[in-house]
Amino acid sequence: MITGITGQDGSYLCEHLLEKGYTVHGIVRRSSTLDRPRLQVQYSNPDVYGKRLFLHYADLSDTTSIRRIITQIQPIEFYHLAGQSHVGLSFEIPESTCDLTAMGTLRIMEILRDQPNRPKFLHASSREIFGTPTVVPQDETTPQNPNSPYGCAKAFATQMVKVYRESHGLFFCNAICYNHESPRRAENFVTRKITLAAARIKLGLQEYLTLGSIDSARDWGYAKEYAEAMWRILQHDQPDDYVLATGTSYTVRDFLQAAFDHVGLNWLDHVQFDKRFIRPADAESLLGDPRKAERVLGWKAQTHMHDLVRIMVDYDMHRLAQGNN
Questions:
Q1: Is 227 domain-assigned?
Q2: Based on the number of CB atoms within 10 Å of its own CB, is 310 exposed (0-12), middle (13-18) or buried (19 or more)?
Q3: Catalytic residue flag (residue 207)
Q4: 49 part of the active site
Q5: Is 254 left (phi over 0), alpha (psi -120 to 50) or beta?
Q6: One of 12, 79, 150, 250 is an active-site residue; which one?
Q7: Is residue 222 annotated as part of the catalytic site, yes or no?
Q8: pTM assigned to the model
Q9: Catalytic residue among 15, 128, 181, 225
Q10: Residue at 151 is within a domain
Q11: 294 domain-assigned
Protein backbone atom coordinates (compact mmCIF):
# COMPACT_ATOMS: atom_id res chain seq x y z
CA MET A 1 0.00 0.00 0.00
CA ILE A 2 1.23 3.46 -0.94
CA THR A 3 0.01 6.85 0.24
CA GLY A 4 0.92 9.58 -2.20
CA ILE A 5 0.87 7.10 -5.07
CA THR A 6 -0.02 9.77 -7.63
CA GLY A 7 3.00 11.90 -6.71
CA GLN A 8 6.51 11.80 -8.10
CA ASP A 9 7.91 9.24 -5.66
CA GLY A 10 4.71 7.24 -5.38
CA SER A 11 4.40 6.73 -9.12
CA TYR A 12 8.00 5.53 -9.46
CA LEU A 13 7.58 3.23 -6.46
CA CYS A 14 4.33 1.87 -7.90
CA GLU A 15 6.10 1.01 -11.17
CA HIS A 16 8.95 -0.66 -9.30
CA LEU A 17 6.62 -2.79 -7.17
CA LEU A 18 4.51 -3.84 -10.14
CA GLU A 19 7.68 -4.91 -11.95
CA LYS A 20 8.54 -6.99 -8.86
CA GLY A 21 5.20 -8.80 -9.11
CA TYR A 22 3.39 -6.99 -6.27
CA THR A 23 -0.28 -6.17 -6.12
CA VAL A 24 -0.32 -2.47 -5.29
CA HIS A 25 -2.99 -0.48 -3.48
CA GLY A 26 -2.82 3.31 -3.47
CA ILE A 27 -4.62 5.83 -1.29
CA VAL A 28 -5.69 8.92 -3.23
CA ARG A 29 -7.59 12.09 -2.38
CA ARG A 30 -10.91 12.76 -4.06
CA SER A 31 -10.60 15.68 -6.46
CA SER A 32 -12.63 17.30 -9.21
CA THR A 33 -10.58 15.56 -11.88
CA LEU A 34 -9.64 11.95 -12.46
CA ASP A 35 -6.52 12.94 -14.40
CA ARG A 36 -3.50 11.14 -12.90
CA PRO A 37 -0.72 11.74 -15.44
CA ARG A 38 2.07 10.06 -13.45
CA LEU A 39 0.08 6.79 -13.38
CA GLN A 40 -1.45 7.11 -16.83
CA VAL A 41 0.30 4.06 -18.28
CA GLN A 42 -0.84 1.77 -15.46
CA TYR A 43 -4.25 3.42 -15.03
CA SER A 44 -5.13 2.94 -18.70
CA ASN A 45 -3.89 -0.66 -18.89
CA PRO A 46 -6.80 -3.11 -18.34
CA ASP A 47 -4.33 -5.88 -17.50
CA VAL A 48 -2.98 -3.80 -14.61
CA TYR A 49 -5.62 -1.43 -13.24
CA GLY A 50 -8.29 -3.29 -11.32
CA LYS A 51 -6.21 -6.47 -11.32
CA ARG A 52 -2.81 -5.63 -9.83
CA LEU A 53 -3.25 -1.92 -9.14
CA PHE A 54 -6.12 -0.57 -7.06
CA LEU A 55 -6.82 3.01 -5.94
CA HIS A 56 -8.84 3.86 -2.83
CA TYR A 57 -10.27 7.25 -1.86
CA ALA A 58 -9.24 8.63 1.52
CA ASP A 59 -7.54 11.62 3.12
CA LEU A 60 -4.78 11.68 5.73
CA SER A 61 -7.18 13.43 8.12
CA ASP A 62 -9.88 10.79 7.57
CA THR A 63 -8.85 8.14 10.09
CA THR A 64 -12.00 6.05 9.70
CA SER A 65 -11.61 5.60 5.95
CA ILE A 66 -7.91 4.81 6.20
CA ARG A 67 -8.54 2.26 8.96
CA ARG A 68 -11.27 0.61 6.88
CA ILE A 69 -9.04 0.36 3.81
CA ILE A 70 -6.06 -1.03 5.73
CA THR A 71 -8.23 -3.55 7.57
CA GLN A 72 -9.75 -4.78 4.32
CA ILE A 73 -6.50 -4.96 2.35
CA GLN A 74 -4.12 -6.17 5.10
CA PRO A 75 -0.97 -5.00 3.26
CA ILE A 76 2.37 -6.65 3.95
CA GLU A 77 4.30 -3.47 3.15
CA PHE A 78 3.13 0.09 3.71
CA TYR A 79 4.90 3.06 2.10
CA HIS A 80 3.82 6.42 3.51
CA LEU A 81 4.82 9.12 1.02
CA ALA A 82 1.86 11.53 1.22
CA GLY A 83 1.78 14.92 2.87
CA GLN A 84 2.19 18.62 2.19
CA SER A 85 5.79 18.54 0.97
CA HIS A 86 6.47 22.05 -0.32
CA VAL A 87 8.83 23.75 2.15
CA GLY A 88 8.13 27.32 1.05
CA LEU A 89 4.37 26.77 1.09
CA SER A 90 4.56 25.40 4.63
CA PHE A 91 5.24 28.93 5.91
CA GLU A 92 1.88 30.00 4.44
CA ILE A 93 -0.12 26.98 5.63
CA PRO A 94 1.71 25.74 8.75
CA GLU A 95 -1.34 24.28 10.47
CA SER A 96 -2.44 22.03 7.62
CA THR A 97 1.20 21.11 6.92
CA CYS A 98 1.66 19.88 10.48
CA ASP A 99 -1.71 18.13 10.55
CA LEU A 100 -1.12 16.18 7.34
CA THR A 101 2.61 15.61 7.60
CA ALA A 102 3.04 15.05 11.35
CA MET A 103 -0.32 13.92 12.71
CA GLY A 104 -1.25 12.12 9.49
CA THR A 105 1.78 9.89 9.96
CA LEU A 106 0.92 9.24 13.61
CA ARG A 107 -2.66 8.30 12.71
CA ILE A 108 -1.45 5.74 10.20
CA MET A 109 1.04 4.21 12.63
CA GLU A 110 -1.67 3.85 15.28
CA ILE A 111 -3.88 2.02 12.78
CA LEU A 112 -1.04 -0.27 11.74
CA ARG A 113 -0.21 -1.03 15.38
CA ASP A 114 -3.74 -2.37 15.86
CA GLN A 115 -3.63 -4.76 12.91
CA PRO A 116 -3.45 -8.53 13.57
CA ASN A 117 -0.67 -8.80 10.96
CA ARG A 118 1.36 -5.64 11.26
CA PRO A 119 2.93 -4.66 7.95
CA LYS A 120 6.42 -3.33 7.43
CA PHE A 121 6.18 0.45 7.33
CA LEU A 122 8.31 3.06 5.58
CA HIS A 123 7.97 6.77 6.27
CA ALA A 124 9.44 9.09 3.64
CA SER A 125 11.29 11.55 5.85
CA SER A 126 13.22 14.57 4.60
CA ARG A 127 16.59 16.26 4.83
CA GLU A 128 14.58 19.26 6.09
CA ILE A 129 14.63 17.69 9.56
CA PHE A 130 18.24 18.90 9.81
CA GLY A 131 17.29 22.49 8.89
CA THR A 132 20.41 24.44 9.73
CA PRO A 133 22.69 21.44 10.32
CA THR A 134 25.27 21.30 13.06
CA VAL A 135 27.62 19.13 10.97
CA VAL A 136 28.37 18.60 7.28
CA PRO A 137 27.64 16.09 5.84
CA GLN A 138 24.61 14.78 7.72
CA ASP A 139 23.98 11.12 8.51
CA GLU A 140 21.46 9.13 10.53
CA THR A 141 22.94 10.32 13.84
CA THR A 142 22.97 14.05 13.04
CA PRO A 143 20.84 16.06 15.52
CA GLN A 144 17.58 17.36 14.09
CA ASN A 145 17.38 21.14 13.85
CA PRO A 146 14.49 22.08 11.54
CA ASN A 147 13.87 25.68 10.52
CA SER A 148 10.56 25.46 8.63
CA PRO A 149 7.05 24.25 9.51
CA TYR A 150 7.52 21.38 7.08
CA GLY A 151 10.85 20.45 8.66
CA CYS A 152 9.29 20.51 12.14
CA ALA A 153 6.41 18.30 11.00
CA LYS A 154 8.79 15.82 9.39
CA ALA A 155 11.04 15.82 12.46
CA PHE A 156 8.04 14.90 14.64
CA ALA A 157 6.99 12.09 12.29
CA THR A 158 10.55 10.80 11.99
CA GLN A 159 11.00 10.65 15.76
CA MET A 160 7.63 8.96 16.23
CA VAL A 161 8.60 6.23 13.75
CA LYS A 162 11.65 5.54 15.88
CA VAL A 163 9.55 5.57 19.09
CA TYR A 164 7.09 3.05 17.65
CA ARG A 165 9.90 0.83 16.39
CA GLU A 166 11.72 0.76 19.71
CA SER A 167 8.71 0.80 22.04
CA HIS A 168 6.39 -1.59 20.22
CA GLY A 169 8.87 -3.77 18.32
CA LEU A 170 7.44 -2.78 14.92
CA PHE A 171 9.20 -2.95 11.56
CA PHE A 172 8.98 0.82 11.07
CA CYS A 173 11.65 2.67 9.08
CA ASN A 174 12.58 6.18 7.95
CA ALA A 175 13.97 6.99 4.53
CA ILE A 176 15.62 10.38 5.15
CA CYS A 177 15.50 11.65 1.59
CA TYR A 178 17.60 14.49 0.30
CA ASN A 179 16.37 16.46 -2.70
CA HIS A 180 15.37 14.09 -5.45
CA GLU A 181 13.95 15.31 -8.72
CA SER A 182 12.67 14.00 -12.04
CA PRO A 183 10.49 14.99 -15.00
CA ARG A 184 7.56 14.09 -12.72
CA ARG A 185 8.39 16.83 -10.22
CA ALA A 186 5.58 19.36 -9.84
CA GLU A 187 6.11 22.64 -11.66
CA ASN A 188 6.00 24.75 -8.46
CA PHE A 189 9.32 23.27 -7.28
CA VAL A 190 12.36 25.30 -8.27
CA THR A 191 14.15 22.51 -10.16
CA ARG A 192 11.22 21.79 -12.47
CA LYS A 193 10.52 25.50 -12.75
CA ILE A 194 14.08 25.94 -14.05
CA THR A 195 14.13 23.04 -16.52
CA LEU A 196 10.71 23.90 -17.90
CA ALA A 197 11.66 27.56 -18.31
CA ALA A 198 14.92 26.66 -20.07
CA ALA A 199 12.97 24.52 -22.55
CA ARG A 200 10.23 27.12 -23.07
CA ILE A 201 12.72 29.97 -23.57
CA LYS A 202 14.72 27.88 -26.04
CA LEU A 203 11.54 27.22 -28.03
CA GLY A 204 10.46 30.86 -27.94
CA LEU A 205 7.47 30.21 -25.68
CA GLN A 206 8.76 32.28 -22.75
CA GLU A 207 11.21 35.14 -22.32
CA TYR A 208 12.15 35.31 -18.64
CA LEU A 209 12.32 33.14 -15.52
CA THR A 210 11.73 34.72 -12.10
CA LEU A 211 13.47 33.24 -9.05
CA GLY A 212 14.35 34.10 -5.45
CA SER A 213 17.70 33.18 -3.93
CA ILE A 214 19.93 30.96 -6.04
CA ASP A 215 22.78 30.52 -3.56
CA SER A 216 21.30 27.72 -1.42
CA ALA A 217 23.17 24.42 -1.81
CA ARG A 218 21.36 21.10 -2.19
CA ASP A 219 22.17 17.41 -2.63
CA TRP A 220 20.15 16.49 -5.75
CA GLY A 221 19.43 12.92 -6.87
CA TYR A 222 17.06 11.08 -9.22
CA ALA A 223 13.66 10.23 -7.73
CA LYS A 224 13.39 6.93 -9.59
CA GLU A 225 16.51 5.64 -7.83
CA TYR A 226 15.26 6.84 -4.44
CA ALA A 227 12.00 4.93 -4.88
CA GLU A 228 14.00 1.75 -5.45
CA ALA A 229 15.98 2.48 -2.28
CA MET A 230 12.75 2.74 -0.29
CA TRP A 231 11.84 -0.77 -1.40
CA ARG A 232 15.27 -2.03 -0.38
CA ILE A 233 14.82 -0.61 3.12
CA LEU A 234 11.78 -2.83 3.72
CA GLN A 235 13.52 -5.90 2.31
CA HIS A 236 16.30 -5.76 4.89
CA ASP A 237 16.05 -8.19 7.82
CA GLN A 238 16.14 -5.43 10.45
CA PRO A 239 14.17 -2.15 10.58
CA ASP A 240 16.29 0.98 10.61
CA ASP A 241 16.65 4.54 9.31
CA TYR A 242 18.70 5.49 6.26
CA VAL A 243 19.90 8.70 4.65
CA LEU A 244 19.27 8.61 0.89
CA ALA A 245 21.52 11.09 -0.89
CA THR A 246 24.19 11.42 -3.57
CA GLY A 247 26.88 12.79 -1.26
CA THR A 248 27.48 15.75 -3.60
CA SER A 249 26.16 19.29 -3.27
CA TYR A 250 25.38 22.03 -5.79
CA THR A 251 23.75 25.45 -5.56
CA VAL A 252 20.56 26.48 -7.29
CA ARG A 253 22.85 28.67 -9.41
CA ASP A 254 24.74 25.52 -10.54
CA PHE A 255 21.45 23.79 -11.42
CA LEU A 256 20.29 26.87 -13.29
CA GLN A 257 23.48 27.15 -15.31
CA ALA A 258 23.46 23.43 -16.17
CA ALA A 259 19.89 23.66 -17.47
CA PHE A 260 20.50 26.71 -19.67
CA ASP A 261 23.89 25.41 -20.86
CA HIS A 262 22.13 22.24 -22.02
CA VAL A 263 19.96 24.26 -24.41
CA GLY A 264 22.75 26.61 -25.46
CA LEU A 265 21.57 29.70 -23.59
CA ASN A 266 23.17 32.08 -21.10
CA TRP A 267 20.94 32.12 -18.03
CA LEU A 268 22.06 35.66 -17.16
CA ASP A 269 20.11 36.90 -20.18
CA HIS A 270 16.84 35.34 -19.07
CA VAL A 271 16.60 35.28 -15.26
CA GLN A 272 14.98 37.91 -13.07
CA PHE A 273 14.82 38.01 -9.28
CA ASP A 274 11.94 38.72 -6.93
CA LYS A 275 12.28 38.81 -3.16
CA ARG A 276 8.77 37.39 -2.83
CA PHE A 277 10.24 34.00 -3.73
CA ILE A 278 12.76 34.08 -0.88
CA ARG A 279 11.77 31.91 2.09
CA PRO A 280 11.60 33.39 5.61
CA ALA A 281 14.22 30.82 6.61
CA ASP A 282 16.15 28.47 4.37
CA ALA A 283 18.24 25.42 5.12
CA GLU A 284 21.92 25.71 4.28
CA SER A 285 24.79 23.27 3.72
CA LEU A 286 22.49 20.31 3.20
CA LEU A 287 24.72 17.45 2.16
CA GLY A 288 23.82 13.85 2.86
CA ASP A 289 26.13 11.03 3.89
CA PRO A 290 24.67 7.91 2.20
CA ARG A 291 27.38 5.47 3.27
CA LYS A 292 25.08 3.48 5.56
CA ALA A 293 22.61 2.82 2.73
CA GLU A 294 25.48 1.81 0.49
CA ARG A 295 27.01 -0.48 3.10
CA VAL A 296 23.84 -2.12 4.43
CA LEU A 297 21.44 -2.00 1.48
CA GLY A 298 23.88 -2.06 -1.42
CA TRP A 299 22.26 1.13 -2.74
CA LYS A 300 24.15 4.02 -4.25
CA ALA A 301 22.84 6.98 -6.25
CA GLN A 302 23.90 6.67 -9.89
CA THR A 303 22.50 9.90 -11.32
CA HIS A 304 24.03 13.17 -10.16
CA MET A 305 23.03 16.76 -10.79
CA HIS A 306 24.27 17.36 -14.33
CA ASP A 307 22.82 14.11 -15.69
CA LEU A 308 19.59 14.77 -13.81
CA VAL A 309 19.30 18.21 -15.38
CA ARG A 310 19.73 16.73 -18.85
CA ILE A 311 17.01 14.15 -18.19
CA MET A 312 14.57 16.82 -17.03
CA VAL A 313 15.32 19.40 -19.73
CA ASP A 314 15.15 16.80 -22.51
CA TYR A 315 11.78 15.64 -21.22
CA ASP A 316 10.42 19.17 -21.15
CA MET A 317 11.80 19.95 -24.61
CA HIS A 318 10.17 16.82 -26.03
CA ARG A 319 6.84 17.47 -24.30
CA LEU A 320 6.72 21.09 -25.46
CA ALA A 321 7.69 20.11 -29.01
CA GLN A 322 4.65 17.84 -29.03
CA GLY A 323 2.46 20.85 -28.30
CA ASN A 324 1.96 20.29 -24.55
CA ASN A 325 2.55 23.80 -23.22
A1: yes
A2: middle
A3: no
A4: no
A5: alpha
A6: 150
A7: no
A8: 0.92
A9: 128
A10: yes
A11: no
